[in-house]
Design brief:
Blueprint: H1 6-11, H2 13-45, H3 48-56, H4 58-84, H5 88-114, H6 117-124, H7 128-160, H8 164-188, H9 193-218, H10 231-265, H11 268-304, H12 308-332, H13 340-351
Helix pairs in contact: 2-3, 2-8, 2-11, 2-13, 3-7, 3-11, 4-5, 4-7, 4-10, 4-11, 5-7, 7-8, 7-9, 7-11, 8-9, 11-12
Length: 352
């Protein structure tokens, strides 16, 4: 039915986890590097206030991530279990409903946030250049965020089909393109903050085109079909993805609280410094998220195939790998060769 096979997973459990998780980790790290690159070009070609302005709106991005992950993780888990039961018809219906729900929810969220941008600035007490940069950036980014959310959802279903390397390739392409466009639009054309946001929008749209092509022409299981909205599937999707929503929402709330306090106590310079320091934490958190997103299609597939003990074992092994990664990262502060790059390279070679 697809490239995943229960017997093969059982015989090579750790290798199967790494084969799915390492491409997911690389994808997540590349995604985080886009934010680092945006900060670099803003600081060097625009103004430090632009970095602060973008950071003030990070809770908006986390809110989109929370909504998108709740829908896409919940839907992909249900579809993965159906795939394990070899129910292709139901797989495609759940896939189509999940992507449609994700698109509608993110577009509606963009509309709501558009009318709240000035309210957010007023609450934070931002004004002057910071407020100007904030409005220039997020007015355009609200067109990009729904595309980003749908892309992430489509990527989860690419992994569920057993093709994590394809989505990693798409992510690498969009990352490189985004950085090149950042340079072109800022250093070349002088578009300022609007250019940074436009670079994100263009690269996200091209990534969406590649993913759409995959599901229209290359997908083995998941295809777009006409579906009747299923309330039970919707309810189960929300319940399965609720933990993801709460996790990202907590980041949204804590980031908003940090920004509020720093703006009131220190000011723009404090927000800028907090943003730069936060890049390191953000990159590492993407490594942890990558393990979870890599393990999810495997565990849901074997669970659907009624291999509950195997699903539990995959979960346990993934947790141990995450702990090992965290330990190596903590050691890397004293020993440079224990870097994330070396860990990814080693595990990637092992997984092949």
């Amino acid at each position: 039915m697809n490239s995943m096979n229960v017997d093969s997973i059982r015989a090579n459990r750790t290798r199967a986890i790494l084969a799915f998780s390492v491409p997911a980790i690389i994808s997540m790290v590349l995604t985080s590097l886009i934010n680092v690159a945006d900060g670099f070009f803003m600081g060097n070609f625009i103004h430090k206030d632009a970095i602060a302005a973008v950071n003030l709106g990070l809770p908006i991005i986390y809110l989109f991530l929370a909504t998108g992950l709740m829908v896409s993780v919940g839907g992909s888990v249900i579809a993965g279990m159906l795939m394990g039961r070899k129910d292709e018809k139901s797989c495609r219906s759940v896939f189509s409903q999940t992507i449609a729900t994700c698109a509608v929810a993110s577009v509606l969220l963009s509309v709501v946030m558009f009318f709240l941008l000035r309210t957010i600035l007023a609450v934070l007490g931002a004004e002057g250049k910071v407020a100007e940069y904030f409005l220039q950036y997020y007015t355009i980014l609200l067109f990009e965020l729904p595309v980003m959310t749908v892309n992430a959802s489509l990527g989860m279903f690419v992994r569920a089909e057993g093709r994590p390397q394809f989505y990693m390739g798409v992510t690498a392409f969009t990352c490189v393109l985004n950085i090149l466009l950042d340079w072109l639009f800022t250093a070349g054309f002088g578009f300022g903050v609007r250019g940074i946001a436009a670079a994100s929008l263009v690269s996200a749209l091209l990534g969406f085109a590649f993913l759409l092509f995959y599901f229209l022409k290359k997908a083995r299981v998941f295809r777009f079909v006409r579906f009747r909205f299923d309330r039970k599937v919707f309810r189960d999707t929300m319940l399965n993805g609720l933990s993801e929503f709460i996790g990202e929402l907590s980041m949204c709330i804590s980031m908003a609280a940090y920004n509020f306090v720093i703006m009131r106590r220190i000011g723009v310079d404090g927000v800028t410094a907090f943003t730069v320091v936060g890049y390191t934490t953000y990159v590492f958190s993407m490594v942890v998220c990558g393990f979870g997103q890599g393990m999810a299609p495997l565990s849901s597939f074997v669970y659907g195939a009624k291999e509950k003990l195997l699903a539990r074992n995959l979960f346990t092994r993934t947790v141990l790998l995450v702990l090992a990664t965290g330990w190596r990262q903590s050691r890397s502060s004293d020993s440079a060769h224990h870097s994330t790059a070396e860990f990814l390279w080693t595990t990637w070679r092992f997984s092949r």
